[in-house]
TrEMBL record:
PANTHER family: VACUOLAR SORTING PROTEIN VPS29
NCBIfam families named in the record: PRK09453.1, yfcE
Protein name per Swiss-Prot or TrEMBL: Phosphoesterase
This enzyme's EC code(s): 3.1.4.-
UniProt xrefs under InterPro entries: Calcineurin-like_PHP_lpxH, Metallo-depent_PP-like, MPP_YfcE, Phosphodiesterase_MJ0936/Vps29
SUPFAM superfamilies: Metallo-dependent phosphatases
Keyword list, A-Z: Metal-binding
Family the entry assigns: Belongs to the metallophosphoesterase superfamily. YfcE family.
Keyword Plastid: no
Domain Calcineurin-like phosphoesterase intervals: 1-161
Length: 180
């Protein structure tokens, strides 16, 4: 199974379109959205082509290929307009012999780890900073932010295959990678 991870769209129709393009180009099985889908949040500037209604339309058109979790900027009113579930603080995906704990990162993160076994994966967004590392036998991953990257990082997303996680830019550059 090939999973494509995006975090922190923050209402950018421009980057939501890019996410759908990546799903097709990468031949991914599912997009995993790690929260902060529609609203830009009070601490963020407006992202490029801020249009939450356009994001709703794009995501709903691809609802059968989306797994999503709630971010700290997502609310119940967002769930009312989206045609896929996104109000859970986390979801667990089992891919071959690995448990993937997918969350936004504002509750569960490296400082507040969920219960995981060796070689399991914690993947989250929230910080807008790409991460791919192993700590005490657990993989800690963050695809970075698609629309509002921080610390001079480019817009990025994650691609997970059976044995590898890549963090890529939209021009195909691999900025981080780790064998799983």
């Amino acid at each position: 199974m090939k999973l494509i991870f995006f975090s922190d769209i923050h209402g950018s129709e421009y980057y939501a379109k890019k996410a759908i393009e990546v799903l097709k180009e990468e031949k991914g099985d599912y997009i995993v959205l790690l929260g902060d889908l529609l609203y830009h949040g009070p601490r963020n500037d407006l992202p490029k082509e801020y249009n939450p209604k356009g994001v709703i339309e794009l995501l709903n058109a691809n609802k059968n290929n989306i797994i999503a979790v709630r971010g700290n900027c997502d609310s119940e009113v967002d769930q009312m307009v989206l045609k896929f579930p996104m109000m859970s603080d986390y979801t667990i995906i089992v891919n071959n012999d690995k448990k993937i704990f997918a969350t936004h990162g504002h509750i569960y993160n490296e400082a507040n780890m969920p219960q995981l076994n060796e070689k399991d994966i914690l993947i989250h967004g929230h910080t807008h900073i790409p991460v791919a590392k192993e700590k005490e036998g657990i993989f800690i991953l963050n695809p970075g932010s698609i629309s509002l990257p921080k610390e001079n990082n480019p817009s990025s997303f994650g691609v997970m295959t059976e044995n590898e996680f890549l963090i890529k830019t939209f021009d195909g550059q691999i900025i981080k990678q780790i064998k799983l």
